[in-house]
Design goal:
- This protein is mainly beta and 355 residues long.
- The chain is built from 4 helices and 24 strands.
- It has a 4-stranded mixed beta sheet with strand order 6-10-11-14, with no helix packed on it.
- Strand 1 and strand 2 form a beta hairpin.
- It is globular, with a radius of gyration of 19 Å.
Length: 355
Amino acid sequence: MRTIVRISAFHVGVLGLTLGCGGKLETDVSNTDGGAHRTDSSQPDSSRPDSSQPPNTGGRYFPAGAVWYQDISNANLDSESAQITRWLQDNGGWGQGRIQIDFSLDVLEATDGTPFRNFEATDDFFSPDCDRVPFPVPPGGNLEGEEGYQCDGDGDCHLIVVDRKSSKLYEMWRANITGDTFYGGCAVVWDMTRVYGPKGRGEQCTSADAAGYPIAPLLFTADEVAAGSIDHAIRFILPNSRIRRDAYVHPATHAAGSGPREAVPYGTRWRLRASYPVDSLPVGARVVARGLQRYGMLLADGGQIALTAQSDRHTRAKWEGLLGARDLAAIQPTDFEIVEAGERIPLTFDCVREP
């Protein structure tokens, strides 16, 4: 049985609160991801990496058959596509009223010398959804939106580390290392040799993102944009009140929205219309838009900044002069279509892990 305390939709609405990643209860603030306070990422992160932290230029994290890499440019439309996109358009649209790009998430690279540390689970660790395992902490690394490993800004403080030697992707939500103490929220270990099925790590199971799937393969990087191609789906988020309550579709395996039946379900995959005038956008934004036409974007979490890019702190190319936070702001919800999403699965919070 899950250890999360649940609060009814009635109380969520009356108190003006939102349910974020893993179903936790938090106040809704202007710059949030999953309902938690976060750093405002209206400008690209221009800080430079510590020399001890190797660059992470993105690339594929899973085999070619993984859902993130499927070309959906010719996929059938969902029966609710027009209704859902119109509803979002008429009910506030994207967070902050426009598509904006968050540049605060980092993906660190583990090396042979990277230490693995045990962590003290906090109330943001859910069982059996999350994995209680030693977690790699690369020297010179940092949490999302932070200069180091201490969660000073009280944000989501994701810690994401790829260990290519063992083919493991480690993702943690609400990490905080203070002195010798490592506090950890929901930690997840992904097997990068595996093509996960529709149930992912398990039906009704969350992950470091509320939807239950990984974060790293959905982040686009400055290196990809500089090279002119994004060959995977992109992570996107919406305010919790615009995400459908108590239901999701695969590849999501969990939900945490507080919106009505007409709102957007977790797990839906949105495709920018083929007719959209991509050439009207700034050059770097055209690369992102073409990726959205071919691979789309997947609703992954709750918050205010719609699209998520990887920080340039640990990449070779840099965002400055390449892509601005508001370069896609002209794109509206009705410029998208939702591809066939399949069954709407009622949320029960009864996580059953896949073997």
